[in-house]
Specification:
Layout (H helix, E strand, L loop, with lengths): L1 E4 L2 E4 L7 H8 L10 H9 L2 E7 L2 E10 L4 E9 L8 H10 L9 E4 L5 H5 L20 H4 L4
Protein backbone atom coordinates (compact mmCIF):
# COMPACT_ATOMS: atom_id res chain seq x y z
CA UNK A 1 0.00 0.00 0.00
CA UNK A 2 1.16 3.54 -0.67
CA UNK A 3 -0.16 7.05 -0.18
CA UNK A 4 1.22 10.33 -1.45
CA UNK A 5 0.56 13.72 0.12
CA UNK A 6 2.28 16.92 -0.89
CA UNK A 7 5.89 15.85 -1.53
CA UNK A 8 5.89 12.66 0.56
CA UNK A 9 5.26 9.05 -0.41
CA UNK A 10 4.47 6.68 2.46
CA UNK A 11 4.87 3.00 1.69
CA UNK A 12 4.98 -0.41 3.35
CA UNK A 13 6.98 -1.94 0.49
CA UNK A 14 9.84 -3.70 2.26
CA UNK A 15 12.01 -3.49 -0.86
CA UNK A 16 11.93 0.33 -0.68
CA UNK A 17 13.33 0.50 2.85
CA UNK A 18 16.85 1.94 3.08
CA UNK A 19 18.28 -0.61 5.49
CA UNK A 20 21.69 1.08 5.83
CA UNK A 21 20.13 4.41 6.79
CA UNK A 22 17.60 2.80 9.14
CA UNK A 23 20.26 0.77 10.93
CA UNK A 24 22.65 3.70 11.20
CA UNK A 25 19.95 5.91 12.69
CA UNK A 26 18.49 3.35 15.09
CA UNK A 27 21.88 2.10 16.30
CA UNK A 28 22.45 5.59 17.72
CA UNK A 29 19.07 6.08 19.45
CA UNK A 30 18.44 5.71 23.18
CA UNK A 31 16.13 2.75 22.54
CA UNK A 32 18.31 0.72 20.13
CA UNK A 33 21.81 1.93 20.84
CA UNK A 34 24.38 -0.51 19.48
CA UNK A 35 21.92 -2.82 17.72
CA UNK A 36 23.75 -5.02 15.21
CA UNK A 37 22.92 -5.11 11.52
CA UNK A 38 21.96 -8.77 11.81
CA UNK A 39 19.55 -8.14 14.71
CA UNK A 40 18.03 -5.10 12.97
CA UNK A 41 17.53 -7.03 9.73
CA UNK A 42 15.85 -9.86 11.61
CA UNK A 43 13.56 -7.41 13.44
CA UNK A 44 12.55 -5.76 10.17
CA UNK A 45 11.95 -9.05 8.38
CA UNK A 46 9.58 -10.17 11.15
CA UNK A 47 7.61 -6.93 11.35
CA UNK A 48 5.53 -4.58 9.24
CA UNK A 49 7.66 -1.68 8.00
CA UNK A 50 6.57 1.78 6.90
CA UNK A 51 8.75 4.41 5.29
CA UNK A 52 8.33 8.06 4.31
CA UNK A 53 10.08 9.08 1.10
CA UNK A 54 10.74 12.50 -0.41
CA UNK A 55 12.13 12.64 -3.96
CA UNK A 56 12.97 8.94 -3.67
CA UNK A 57 15.01 9.39 -0.47
CA UNK A 58 13.80 7.74 2.72
CA UNK A 59 13.33 10.36 5.43
CA UNK A 60 11.22 8.45 7.97
CA UNK A 61 10.60 4.98 9.28
CA UNK A 62 8.29 3.05 11.61
CA UNK A 63 8.10 -0.63 12.51
CA UNK A 64 5.08 -2.55 13.80
CA UNK A 65 5.46 -5.83 15.67
CA UNK A 66 2.15 -7.68 15.40
CA UNK A 67 0.31 -10.97 15.11
CA UNK A 68 -2.05 -9.14 12.70
CA UNK A 69 -5.06 -10.36 14.66
CA UNK A 70 -5.09 -9.16 18.27
CA UNK A 71 -2.03 -7.10 19.18
CA UNK A 72 0.39 -4.60 17.67
CA UNK A 73 3.36 -2.67 19.04
CA UNK A 74 4.57 0.46 17.26
CA UNK A 75 8.29 1.07 17.56
CA UNK A 76 11.42 2.50 15.92
CA UNK A 77 9.57 5.58 14.70
CA UNK A 78 11.75 8.41 13.45
CA UNK A 79 12.09 11.19 10.91
CA UNK A 80 15.57 12.38 9.92
CA UNK A 81 16.53 15.71 11.46
CA UNK A 82 16.51 17.69 8.21
CA UNK A 83 12.97 16.49 7.46
CA UNK A 84 11.40 17.10 10.88
CA UNK A 85 8.52 19.54 11.26
CA UNK A 86 7.01 18.84 7.83
CA UNK A 87 4.28 16.43 8.92
CA UNK A 88 5.97 13.23 7.74
CA UNK A 89 5.52 11.43 11.07
CA UNK A 90 1.81 12.28 11.00
CA UNK A 91 1.53 10.89 7.46
CA UNK A 92 3.18 7.66 8.58
CA UNK A 93 0.80 7.36 11.55
CA UNK A 94 -2.25 8.01 9.33
CA UNK A 95 -0.98 5.31 6.97
CA UNK A 96 -0.31 2.82 9.77
CA UNK A 97 -3.78 3.24 11.26
CA UNK A 98 -5.31 2.45 7.85
CA UNK A 99 -3.26 -0.69 7.18
CA UNK A 100 -5.52 -3.68 6.56
CA UNK A 101 -3.10 -5.94 8.47
CA UNK A 102 -3.94 -3.93 11.61
CA UNK A 103 -7.71 -3.70 11.27
CA UNK A 104 -9.55 -5.11 14.27
CA UNK A 105 -6.52 -5.02 16.56
CA UNK A 106 -7.68 -4.87 20.18
CA UNK A 107 -4.50 -3.48 21.73
CA UNK A 108 -2.05 -1.25 19.85
CA UNK A 109 0.70 -0.05 22.15
CA UNK A 110 3.90 1.97 21.98
CA UNK A 111 6.52 3.43 24.27
CA UNK A 112 7.86 6.97 23.96
CA UNK A 113 10.02 9.24 26.03
CA UNK A 114 9.06 12.52 24.39
CA UNK A 115 6.39 12.26 21.69
CA UNK A 116 3.22 11.86 23.75
CA UNK A 117 1.49 14.85 22.11
CA UNK A 118 2.08 13.45 18.63
CA UNK A 119 0.66 10.01 19.44
CA UNK A 120 -2.27 11.43 21.43
CA UNK A 121 -3.50 13.11 18.22
CA UNK A 122 -4.01 9.61 16.80
CA UNK A 123 -5.78 8.05 19.77
CA UNK A 124 -2.96 6.67 21.92
CA UNK A 125 -3.27 7.42 25.61
CA UNK A 126 -1.64 6.31 28.87
CA UNK A 127 -2.25 2.70 29.87
CA UNK A 128 -5.78 2.07 31.12
CA UNK A 129 -4.47 -0.14 33.91
CA UNK A 130 -0.67 0.10 34.20
CA UNK A 131 -0.64 -2.17 37.27
CA UNK A 132 -1.50 -5.18 35.11
CA UNK A 133 1.53 -4.77 32.82
CA UNK A 134 4.92 -6.25 33.48
CA UNK A 135 8.12 -6.34 31.49
CA UNK A 136 11.63 -7.66 31.30
CA UNK A 137 13.75 -4.67 30.38
CA UNK A 138 17.43 -4.93 29.53
CA UNK A 139 18.78 -1.49 28.64
CA UNK A 140 22.14 -1.58 26.92
CA UNK A 141 21.87 -5.24 25.91
CA UNK A 142 22.67 -4.54 22.25
CA UNK A 143 26.06 -3.14 23.21
CA UNK A 144 26.84 -6.38 25.07
CA UNK A 145 25.95 -8.68 22.17
CA UNK A 146 28.18 -9.17 19.14
CA UNK A 147 25.56 -10.74 16.88
CA UNK A 148 22.54 -13.01 17.18
Amino acid sequence: MEITKVDCLVSDDFKKMDFAMIHLYLSQTYWSEGISKIRMKRAMENSLNVGAFVSGQQVGYARIVTDQATYAYLCDVFVLDFAKGKGYSKLMLEFILKMHELSGIKRFSLATKDAHKLYAQFGWKPLENPAMYMEIYRPGIYKLLDEL
